[in-house]
Prior knowledge:
Blueprint: E1 13-21, E2 24-32, E3 37-41, H1 48-56, E4 63-68, E5 71-75, E6 80-81, E7 89-92, H2 104-114, H3 119-132, H4 148-160, E8 166-170, H5 178-192, E9 198-203, H6 206-212, E10 215-220, E11 223-228, H7 230-235, H8 240-246, E12 249-262, E13 267-282, E14 288-290, E15 300-312, E16 315-321, E17 326-331, H9 332-338, E18 345-350, E19 356-359
Parallel strand pairs: 3-9, 3-10, 7-8, 8-9
Antiparallel strand pairs: 1-2, 1-4, 4-5, 5-6, 10-11, 12-13, 13-19, 14-18, 15-16, 15-18, 16-17
Helix pairs in contact: 2-3, 2-4, 4-5
Amino acid sequence: MARRVDRWYLVTLVAHLEVIRGTLDLRVELDANPGETVAILGPNAAGKSTLLRCLAGLQRIDSGRIELDGKALDDPTKRIFVEPQDRQIGVVFQDHLLFPTLTVLENVAFGLRSRGATKSDARSRASAALERLGLSSLANAKPTALSGGQSQQVALARALVTRPRLMLLDEPLAALDVTTKVDVRRSLREQLRSVDGIRILVSHDPVDAFALADRVVIVEDGRVSQSGVLADVAARPRTRYVADLIGVNLFEGVATGPSVELAGGHSIVSASVRTGPVFVLVHPSSVAVHRSRPEGSPRNVWEGTVVDVDLERDRARVRVAGPIDLTAEITATAATQLAARPGERIWLSVKATEVETYAR
């Protein structure tokens, strides 16, 4: 339900759209509230950028309706289509799309000029926007003289200066190196808070979503596969993509009491008692790795073949193929002591209390 976020307008977004282009069949329902940042996550070619283009008016929808602040922006059945420049929407593209022949100040003023502002007013407001972002010293520079982070900030200033009701960001940090990305992400988070309207962020990076978004929508093969607060989605992934995104082991099976039969006839034991179709979640840190069959009474023990070992600072992720393919996460020291290489046989064990199940 829309709430008042400014003394002169209300903002809310409701989009039910269908678009078919080539092999892409996109059918998505999306809504967002004022003051909210929603991250759209998904694999390549899932339809994320097409969704953003539809919201921006750069791509017409085939059917459905896009509505902002109670006003239809695109509704084919009623022959309604509002042109991009009339949508009061700000867009930050992945490659920023700054005009190379214009100065930074002129780039930021461009959106205002295209909406009818006088040259002096546009330059004055653009100058103020650059000052807020700490970019005043770059006002007379050309885009070719900017770093990746500076270019992103200028593109953001250009979008923000028009006071958009809807801010769209398409992979805004993708072109930045790791060091720059940390600083720009922090600055972007602060700037997005200044937008009274709705912010929609397309990304493939869960770190960006966690740092910037209030809610995530997962799009796979043109459909919304899962949505909600990121912590809730991470706690209950429902597709392999989401599981890989957050780095956990996920299986589907049929539970009979504590035992779950997985595809291929293999089973895993949980401490939970359930009946019927379930998801099975095992965190890599819960998987113990052994050179020989472990002693004691772990309920889940398998022998498998090491696929690869990835070192990540003080941790190592060991992928093992076997009756049940699993990824284990151990310390770098433990990995050195294990000295397991791809192709070698090792043993894995998981306590039943570390196996989580939930209904499909």
